[in-house]
Fold this sequence. Notes:
9 helices
Amino acid sequence: MSRLADLHLHTVASDGTWTPAELAAILVSRGIGVFSVTDHDSLASLPEAGRAAQAHGLAFMTGVEFSTQLDGFKIHLLGYGFDPEDPGLHRLAHENEEREAENDRRAVAVLESRGEAVSLDAYDRFEMDPGRGGWKSLQYLVDQGLCRDWRECLRLFFVGPGGIGLPVYPDPDVFIRAIHAAGGRAVLAHPGSGILSADEPESGRPFLDRLLGLGLDGFECFHPENPPSVSRYLAALTDSLDLVRTGGSDCHGSFVPERQVGRPPVRVSDLRLKDIRLLANPG
């Protein structure tokens, strides 16, 4: 088995630009032997990812990235090693997708009421191209010339001044319980993005402890948005508390080109996977 792993990857099932088969071929070319597909609020790519892992002799674990929030603050939870057919997880993923679709339609309706060059009827007829990455409202608004990319889209229409806001997601314990019920483990995604500061990562410990009190199993220690100080702090914390430790690139294909497969480099020896199950394991 390769010593390299990437446990945070997205496909066309959410906002990535690659199919699982295309992703697996790229992983082989980069010398990565252990991976997980963690699409946003979707388990749709997991069957194909498992087959691609078997075809290429890769170790694979089921994964998902759920959107949730605590005290109004949006956070992402990674689930690993669960039963991919679990109805509870599929229900939660579908409900989040519905929340996001409803919020996107509301944004288009608001823009139409403001006289922008959009139409809710046209938006409903619009068919997104999964190979472009992103999501339906983003592609539609880009094509209408209202924004240039996903960052500008979020800033102008959702989270910035005058934006309509993001959907209201369930609390983390809803997803943690469901992941556990499906036989998996729940991990906090990219804590260095808005939760732990580079200068004083320990100042975020009370927030981490709240999540651990809800049953969280560990942290994503290695991620492009985790500064080295955050990675060191989380590695020490997961060791001292015997928690799961994961890492990955958060690659979305060409949709977010600065995030490349295998960056930061993560060795299997850097991880603490404990009892997380692999669905395909060469040798």
